[in-house]
Amino acid sequence: MEKVLHVQSVNDYxxxxxAPVLHPLVSVIHxxxxxxxxxxLCEYGVYGLFLMKESPYTIQYGGASHEVQAGSLMCVAPGQxxxxxxxxxxxxxxxxxxxxxxxxxxxxxxxxLIKDYHFFSYYSNEALLPTQEEWLRLERCIxxxxxxxxxxxEDPHLRRIVLSYISLLLELAAxxxxxxxxxxxxxxxxxxxxxxxxxxxAEGRQVRDGVPxxxxxxxxxxxxxxxxxDLVRARTGESASRYIRRYLMEKxxxxxxxxxxxxxxxxxxxxxxxQHFTRMFKKEFGVAPSKVH
Length: 293
Known about the structure:
The structure is a single chain. Helix content is 48%, strand content 15%. With 293 residues, the chain is α+β, with helices and mostly antiparallel strands. The chain has a five-stranded mixed β-sheet. Helix 4 packs antiparallel against helix 5. The radius of gyration is 23 Å and the shape is elongated.
């Protein structure tokens, strides 16, 4: 069985890598200062930002292998898993880690907003890629949090100050997240979705599971449904459900033009009821499937 480090407290990881314990709910680790760091495949019960300046290792991140790119930002949330199984090797990484527990957030604006930061909720093999100047800005924010935790541990303003820095970091990450949507190639992403849908029907999964949905496509691309939906809208200009529906109806029209009956096409695509298929087809093309010749 794979060896997993359960990071239920922010300091579970800090103690594992030999970093100072600074606060019960917030941990800042500077990889450059560690002497005996080892690999860890972590299952997270906390939020984390990994600002990787240098890491020559292939990690498991978002359910897929990922070559860590210099200057990348990886985000994790409770319930996610990532890293490399510990094999006893002493490793050398440069960068920063910020971990914070959800118990640090109650009663704050960030507690309400954090669910909207979809870069936390995805299981993607894509990290965020800030520019060098942006990376330095992130580094300064994390370093400032550590300075507050070290120098003012009993200060009554500490929590609000640290929360302000965390909020700033997340807004900066949101900026990079949205920008990556804009620069990604739409055609490549659309082909990946189409390939997943083609594979669904080639494997006959519609017989057991019905028509494919957003959750299936997201899982095939190693993405959470939220993140997948964001990507589809940014890269194609339409919702994920609309994209999938359009694919299904184009496939249906081709089958009808080849002589398939409405009921046979409906069954072949995995619809439970022909009436549901008919309504969707008419909504897409403005005519009933029985009128296609």
